[in-house]
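for the writeup, i need someone to sanity check this before i put it in the appendix. the sequnce is what the collaborator sent (i think, or maybe the updated version? ugh). structure was predicted straight from it, no edits. if anything looks off just tell me and ill rerun, i have time this weekend
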Amino acid sequence: MFDYKLLLALAAVVEQAGFDRAAQALGLSQSAVSQRIKLLEARLGQPVLLRASPPQPTEIGRRLLNHVQQVRLLERDLQGQVPALAEGRLPERLRIALNADSLSTWWADAVAPFCTAHGVVLDHVLEDQDVGLKRMRAGEVAACVCAVDRPLAGARSQFLGAMRYRAVASPAFVARHLGDGASADALLRAPAIVFGPDDQLQHRYLASLGLTGAFSHHLCPSSEGFVRLLTSDLGWGMVPELQVRGELASGVLVDVFRGMPIDVPLYWHHWRNGGALLAELTQQLTRSVRQWLVG
């Protein structure tokens, strides 16, 4: 039989990115959390954590974390059937990994009715859409939004739609760097704005124009800051059409090359044994998201 106090200690250390914050979240001392992890490892005969900064789960640790995620959700179902079990408990917290562009555009409107109806709070883990699935694989989240269609073992994948990105810049930037007519070569020489090391949208866009190789770029790991840099004439970049409709309509930003967007497919991944709560969140997303994403 699993000792769930030990498993919850493991989950807290990974989710809180350290023993100190895990102890605070569990209302224990750091020593007590450390002892629970050591006891779990002693019973298994192998380590469940790599003592890095932050701590990382081992392969067996990831399997245990995935199990804990699903048990938490199934317990929520049981509390609904036996209300006495829910007395004194805090609202259910779902950890979801998704990309910053989704969080800054369609996500809040899509999930707000669900959270209100079920009294659920969300713990958002930001990750680029191309690599978000790694958080679920590591057992850190119950579900994720990412650009990968193939689900993990024991999970399901649901196509939500595509987020349309456009290459945009300020009129002043276009005049200064691209002249009267935007050319692919001039765009390669002009500074770009890239969200982070995993952001390949600008690279893909240049490749679609037949261009490869290094290019000068600013790094800006903030969706709102990204647009602010664009409107301040600092570079060109790929931005969700949803996010800059107002700027495009007013002329604050303009398309660098009209009619050449990139559509990034988004998939919702969740555990098969995630219980009724996760199933209802999935239904809510699939019902509502098509008004914001390209079908």
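The chain has a mean pLDDT of 87. The longest strand covers residues 155-169.
thx in advance!!
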